[in-house]
Every structure is written in C-alpha cells, then in structure tokens.
Amino acid sequence: MSVRTGGGGEVRNTRQRRAVSQALASLEDFISTQDLHALLRERGESVSLATTYRILQSMSELGELDVLRGGDGEAIYRRCAAEHHHHHLVCRRCGAAVELEAPSVEEWAGRTAAAHGFTEVDHTVEITGLCAACSARRADG
C-alpha cells in the first residue's frame, strides 16, 4: 500500500509510518521526535528513533505536518490542521499554537522576492509570545 504525494510520486505506507501517523493523530500539541519515539515505545510499537526521524521528515516534506523550531533549535511536529499554507502564533512557555492566515505576509514575501529576482519562493513565519493563560499565571505570581 502506498500514499500518493502531491508531486505525483508515492511513499510506502509501512507499518511504522502508520504507527507514527496514528500517534500524531491522537495528539493536539506539538511533539519532539524523541518524545514521539518514547510514545511509540509505550504503545508497544517497534519503530527505531532513526526511522521516526525519517518518517517525520518525509511527512513534513509532503505537507502533512506543521514543524516548528524550539529555542534550542529542536524541531517539533504536529498534524496539520489546515491543508493550505499558514503561519503560527506560538506560546514560548506552554507551546500552545494558533494557526494564522496572513494574506499581507504572502503579498509582501512575493513582492520582496520578485524585487530581488527570486522565484519559486517559500517562507515560514512563526510569531512567539505568551498566550493569555501563561500571561495570567505570570501576572499572578
């Protein structure tokens, strides 16, 4: 069994890929590769850490996952809630994320790239701060 990609190719839908996909589908928050690997082991799945990395990279390249980089540079992943291009507002403390649409950013990126002779432009925007709940906890003490 294969999964069809956006580019017309196919990726094998292996037992390991299904296990990773099912684990991600059960989560709402972002998760690191190491934490996902630990979750898979807790569930009795035999997926190596290297395979987990490869599957997450593949799913990310196919647009199936949102990927953010933490302050330490570590990538964290979650299932894409939106199937179209979007950006994120992310809480630095708890990791809560809101998906944002930003047409003005899209227009600016296209104009700026064209002004410098760039084509086939892609971009990622992550806005970080404290969510309302973390801000309230901080104010309380």
TrEMBL record:
Main subcellular localisation: cytoplasm
Keyword Zinc-finger: no
Cellular localisation: Cytoplasm
A GO biological process held by the record: negative regulation of DNA-templated transcription
Residues annotated to bind Zn(2+): 91, 94, 131, 134
This protein's UniProt keywords: Cytoplasm, DNA-binding, Iron, Metal-binding, Repressor, Transcription, Transcription regulation, Zinc
Binding-site list for Fe cation: 85, 106, 123
One Pfam family here: FUR
GO cellular component assignments: cytosol
GO MF term (any one): transcription cis-regulatory region binding
Protein name: Transcriptional repressor
Source organism of the structure: Kocuria sediminis
